[in-house]
Design goal:
Elements: E1 36-38, E2 48-50, E3 55-58, E4 71-79, E5 86-91, E6 117-122, E7 128-134
Antiparallel strand pairs: 1-2, 3-4, 4-7, 5-6
Length: 142
């Protein structure tokens, strides 16, 4: 049984610290708060601590389907200390789509997308940055 705030972590929760106080790393909805990391041992009380270094994650993990010729916008979200600046290298990788026309089928007129490799700068107090990936018209639906 899932009961957020009872101090027993279940599969339906990111964390559960017993909801002893606010802004301690685990929200009252049992979600890890930005800038924190929490232990994740099932049926145990979560223990949370502030991140000592900035980390970057995707704001979303499911980007859905997009039309050929459109642009996919990807948001990067910063967690951890805000008083430092840093760079992150972002690269696209072929999985179900291909960045090479030669591997996209005999009738392909283009690759599925334009490969990206760039450095994204996070300045002091910058929380999120965007990256765009152009989806090409290749006349192949796979």
């Amino acid at each position: 049984r899932h009961s957020c705030g009872d101090g027993k972590l279940t599969s339906a929760e990111d964390c559960d610290d017993g909801n002893l106080r606010q802004e301690d790393g685990c929200s009252n909805k049992c979600v890890v708060e930005a800038g924190w990391e929490c232990t994740d041992v099932p049926q145990q009380r979560s223990s949370c601590k502030r991140l000592s270094k900035p980390t970057v994650s995707f704001s979303q993990t499911d980007f859905g389907t997009h039309d050929e010729g459109s642009v996919l916008s990807i948001q990067l979200q910063r967690s951890g200390p805000m008083d430092v600046e840093f760079n992150v290298t972002v690269r696209t990788q072929d999985a179900g789509a291909t960045s090479a026309q030669a591997y996209n089928g005999e009738t392909a007129t283009n690759s599925d997308y334009t490969a990206v490799e760039l450095v994204v700068h996070f300045g002091v107090n910058v929380i999120s940055r965007g990256v765009q990936v152009r989806l090409n018209r290749d006349n192949v639906w796979s």
